[in-house]
Design brief:
116 residues, mainly beta, Immunoglobulin-like, 43% strand, globular
Length: 116
């Protein structure tokens, strides 16, 4: 299955439909944009970020535009926002395995884990 992600909005108790996400390949301090996308009605991507054939071992970053998502939902956020964008840096050691990187987020907190 390659690499996938989804986001759950813990403030409203629903998928984060419409959140903007960017995927980068990283090498040290350098990050190269791979793709940008918008999460669907289920807070997921319509297709894997990488399928098994294109996933490679290495380091990556997912950046989630949290503040823009919550502002679009009408949440009154302070300026500056506590969370603007959430970036998750992670490694792929075994390209033959599925890597799922979920994000659970509110305007004030987030958590992640390697999902299945």
């Amino acid at each position: 299955m390659g690499l996938s992600t989804h986001v759950l909005d813990t403030m409203h108790g629903c998928p984060a439909a419409g959140m903007e996400v960017a995927l980068y390949a990283t090498s040290g301090e350098q990050a190269t944009l791979v793709k940008r996308l918008t999460l669907n009605h289920d807070g997921r991507t319509d297709a894997p970020l990488f399928d098994n054939a294109s996933l490679r071992p290495g380091t990556y970053r997912l950046t989630f535009d949290v503040a823009a998502y919550f502002k679009a939902r009408g949440v009154q956020l302070p300026e500056p926002n506590f969370l603007g964008r959430v970036s998750l840096d992670f490694g792929i050691a075994h390209a033959d395995q599925h890597y799922h990187v979920p994000l659970l987020v509110s305007p004030w907190s987030y958590s992640t884990y390697r999902g299945s």
